[in-house]
Amino acid sequence: MKQGFSLIETIIAIAVIAVGLLTIQLGTSIVMNQRQREFDEQLAWYQLLGELESPEYRFRVTKMDRYQLILKSPRVTKRPFLLRHRRTVETKASHELMLTTPYGGYLPLIREVKDVTWATKKNRLYLELTMMKGQKFSALTSVPVGLDQEKGEKK
């Protein structure tokens, strides 16, 4: 009787080990990809706050309604900036917050936004965002609110 493995037994053992390692690698990459998306959403949130609180523009909210904020800047006196929550044309399921400039350009600040609530707290802009995947963000910004019209205090 021979001791050891035959060639076929060795090939089958190597194949089983390879399938096991590939399964582990695939599972790890899926988990890491999901965590990366959560970090990307968090980074986009802080970039949004950075744009709104930028000392370069020193925004002030002059009007609020359900889907947009009108922001004025002492640096740009022609027309106001708009911060809008809208559904994108390309994909019906994706929503985004977009900052529209007085010169016709726009800056998509954060994508895959399910719901946005803005309100006035302590004469400052308060934001709450809910992402499509359920992650929630909220912040009391340093952006002052001086509403031209007193209606529509909340989203």
Could you describe the 3D structure shown?
With 155 residues, the chain is α+β, with helices and mostly antiparallel strands. It has one domain (36-144). It has one helix and eight strands. The chain has one helix at residues 7-52, and strands at 60-64, 68-73, 76-87, 95-100, 106-111, 113-121, 124-131, 136-144. The strands form two sheets. It has a five-stranded antiparallel beta sheet. It is rod-shaped and about 90 Å long. The relative contact order is 0.15.
Provide a brief overview of the structure.
With 155 residues, the chain is α+β, with helices and mostly antiparallel strands. It has 1 helix and 8 strands. It is found in: Cell surface.
| Residue share in helix | 25-40%
Q: Please, how many helices?
A: 1
Mean pLDDT: 83
The oligomeric status of these chains comes to: single chain
Integer tally of domains = 1
Q: Specify the structural class.
A: alpha+beta
Strand arrangement in the largest pleated sheet = 1-2-3-4-5
Which spans have pLDDT < 50 for at least 5 consecutive residues?
149-155
Describe the sheet with the most strands. 5 strands, antiparallel
Termini distance?
82 Å
How do the helices and strands follow one another from N- to C-terminus? Answer: HEEEEEEEE
Overall number of strands: 8
What share of residues are in beta strands?
35-45%
The value of Rg in angstroms is: 25 Å
Morphology call: rod-shaped
